[in-house]
Every structure is written in C-alpha cells, then in structure tokens.
Amino acid sequence: MRQMQEMEDRHGRDAGGFQDTIARLESEIANMKDEMARHLREYQDLLNIKMALDIEIATYRKLLEGEERR
C-alpha cells in the first residue's frame, strides 16, 4: 500500500512538472507568434517602400530617356 502511495505521489509530481513544461512551451509559442507577426508587418512595410522606390526609379528613368532623345 505504501509503495502504491509513493508511486502515485511520484506520478503526481511528474504530471505537475509536465504541466509546467507545457505552460512554458505554450507561452514561448505565443511569444514566437507575436514576433513572427511583428516581422511580417516590418516585411510588408519594407516591401511597400521598395515598391514605391521602384516606381520612383522607373519615373526618373523615363524622364532621363526623354531628355536623352532631345
């Protein structure tokens, strides 16, 4: 009987440790998702800037080509 109680206690402690590990990992996952969302917003901002600069470059290129033809 005592041995069974010791096993139950040990399993209870193990289960508590596993629950702590699960909670920690879930927290890490949430943090990583937040970080990924932040990186995605930064990427989208940079992509928008790049596209605007590409348009500006194309405009200046057309202006230069027009001047060269004169």
Provide structural commentary.
The chain is mainly α and 70 residues long. The chain has one helix and no strands. It is rod-shaped and about 105 Å long.
Short overview:
This protein is mainly α and 70 residues long.
Please give the structural blueprint.
Layout: H1 2-69
Overall residue-averaged pLDDT value: 93
Unreliable runs: none
| Structure classification | mainly alpha
Rg over CA atoms, rounded to whole Å, is 30 Å
Proportion of beta-strand residues: under 5%
Shape summary? rod-shaped
Biggest pleated-sheet summary: none
What is the number of helices?
1
Order of helices and strands: H
Fill in the keyword field for this structure.
single chain, 1 helix, 70 residues, 97% helix, mainly alpha
